[in-house]
Amino acid sequence: MENHHGFFTAGSSALSATAAAALEYGGFHGGKGDGLSGLIMEQMRAPDNLNVIFQNGSFVHETKMETKKGEKKIRNPRFAFQTRSQVDILDDGYRWRKYGQKAVKNNKFPRSYYRCTHQGCSVKKQIQRLTKDEGIVMTTYEGMHSHPIQKSNDNFEHILNQMQIYTNSF
DNA sequence: CGCCTTTGACCGGCGC
DNA sequence: GCGCCGGTCAAAGGCG
Asked: % helix / strand / coil in chain A, to the nearest 5?
């Protein structure tokens, strides 16, 4: 688990543990053993009400209390991470339909909302570029896929390669 | 024709 | 109540 390549330059054991959980969940077909598997964070998940955020390679977690008086208001597990990338859309192999875009306060870039188009799958994600550092794209996943990937993974791997190059030259 | 964006309207929660 | 804010809906249009 220590082989994730400077992408998240973390010494945090918490990060390692989370990464382990991600790989354990292993939604992507095959780690391919090419060293990129550590970068595949899409499938990482956090416990209920736990928001996991990576900032500048460091690891931050924030608990989110959603359970108020509603009780039924339990949010799906959420997972957020940031990547340094020129492109906003990180193709992770699933098919997404965009269902909204909103301007966010204190941010000059809009936030985009996507939903997984697989029948019966309600996984959502939001993508937002940070004003603070335009090179960073923040992606937040909510919920987990309970079905296989629909698209080829080739594109995603390509993008991962790009990201790796990009981060290494940092 | 099927699937996707775009975009303003709408909605619920919250603070004043 | 009212207005803001974040999130979602849905009509219209684009594109292969």
From this structure: 20, 30, 55
